Amino acid sequence: MDLSELERDNTGRCRLSSPVPTACRDEPCVLGVDEAGRGPVLGPMVYAICYCPVSRLADLEALKVADSKTLSENERERLFAKMEEDQDFVGWVLDVLSPNLISTSMLGRVKYNLNSLSHDTAAGLIQYALDQGVNVTQVFVDTVGMPETYQARLQQRFPGIQVTVKAKADALYPVVSAASICAKVARDRAVKTWRFVESLQDVDADYGSGYPNDPKTKAWLRKHVEPVFGFPQFVRFSWSTAQTILEKEAEGVTWEDSAAEDGAQPRKITTYFLNRGSQARPQALHWYFQERGLEMATSL
Amino acid sequence: APQHVFLLPEYLKDASEKMKGGLMFVKLANPCSGEGAIYLFNMNLQQLFEIKVFKEKYHSWFINQSVQSGGLLHFATPMDPLFLLLHYLIKAGKEGKYQPLDQVVVDDVFPNCILLLKLPDLEKLLHHVTEEKEINNKKYYRYSREKTLRWLEKKVNQTVVSLKANNVIVGARVQSATFFSGDQASSDKEEDYVRYAHGLISDYIPKELSDELSTY
Amino acid sequence: LLPCEVLVSRPAPVERFFTPAI
């Protein structure tokens, strides 16, 4: 797994893919979808798909890709290495979503929430496998949000494929568990090798699990909050944990639309016509200057 | 300390380096309203600049390794000091008598007005707006309404030329200041230009003189 | 020039956190 593209630019998203085993083009395949890092307030979220011919599911199971949640980090690394070795029947694709992409999607003017981002990413990966010529006949997806709507949406998008969306799919289907291992290995590596574009001086790598309720993670966030810029882009600004710290520790900033959002009490229309003796602005200049937003400087 | 961002003519840069206090920001009476406004003196070249500020909400500056709230952008524009002197001459003119300049240009609210007396070719300037007398080698001045209106008429005409040269929209029609179609100049009547120029000059003279100029 | 008002003026690690772009 070559994460160098992510190391070059970890502010967007990047897609990594194994070669497509020939068998996966010829034979009907089953594909599993899962993600890693959905909950943490730090680091990327990784979506992964893993696929293999239906005829080789037993071999996949033999790899002991049991429920990935029971595996340790080293076991996952070892298993992933084995999957990389067994190139002849297992393929995978990853989509690494940077914390910056997550934050800017969720905090954009047009909100793009995490569930939508997740669903679109999963669908994008399935489409990517199809575009690579993988002969996908069945898809198993670990659910995000309501299974029924998610399943209906995916089924509608991929009518020729049998789609199953289920909670705890990684414990039920080996191919989903394999995808989960790929996602977790990728996320662990991305977090471990994270390059802080902010060239932080004393960044300590010990940020715990990254989950909001982890005291180490909270301590790390408090230590690295910057009053004007908030946090390094390693942090998901859209997480309430991050926002709470910003509200306490960071400086206030007002944006044009935020003023509207704050529901600045709308001025009564009459106030625009009454002579605003009290609020007299500095002497109104000729139209030439007003048009250009220029006023006399009355103080420095 | 607060940091300010200025747009200045390039040659002023070395003025501030060449001489400590080469550039001085002072508060003087704005000749139209009489209220305080900031002006800039370049002590080297004895030149006066008015300071205008672009002020729009929701802005800040990053200046090197700091953030400056407000995001104001100040402009320094060369200004004819006679407008500021005129403010004092008109005030003194009401007594109708000839007076030495250093008794006219005094202001306990804006004491820095005496810097105006240091400007070069002051006498040449005053010639445009005053009658003068010389007694025992000392010059005495009295505000002259006629000469001032003639001088202001020249200012208006120069401004008309500049408005045309800079494609400034002067028409009464409502349209964006930045869009102009090729045949703009022809469609705006001469009258529009003169009125617009009078309006601009009126930002620099007292209201009653503006009315007199308009009639004139 | 930023399209927002930071409500204070203070030192800030601009070059580490901010990549200017027009």
Can you walk through the features of this model?
In chain A, 39% of the residues lie in helices and 16% in strands. Chain A has 300 residues and is of the alpha/beta class. Chain A is elongated, with a radius of gyration of 25 Å. Chain A starts with a helix and ends with a strand. Helix content of chain B is 35%, strand content 23%. A 5-stranded mixed beta sheet of chain B has the order 1-7-4-3-2. A two-stranded antiparallel sheet of chain B has the order 5-6. In chain B, a hairpin with a 4-residue loop joins strand 3 (36-42) and strand 4. In chain B, helix 5 (145-165) packs across helix 7. Chain C has 22 residues and is an alpha+beta fold. Chain C has 1 helix and 2 strands. Chain C has one helix spanning 14-17; strands spanning 4-6, 10-11. Chains A and B meet through helix 13 and strand 8 of A and strand 3, strand 4 and helix 7 of B.
Q: Kindly estimate the percentage of residues of chain B that lie in beta strands according to DSSP.
A: 15-25%
Largest sheet of chain A: 6 strands, mixed
Low-pLDDT segments of chain B = none
Radius of gyration of chain B: 20 Å
Mean pLDDT score of chain B: 89
| Termini Cα gap of chain A | 58 Å
SSE sequence of chain A, one letter per element:
HEHEEHHEHHEHEHHHHEHHE
Structural class of chain A: alpha/beta
Average the pLDDT over all residues of chain A and give the rounded result: 89
How does the overall form of chain A come out from the CA principal axes? elongated
Largest sheet of chain B: 5 strands, mixed
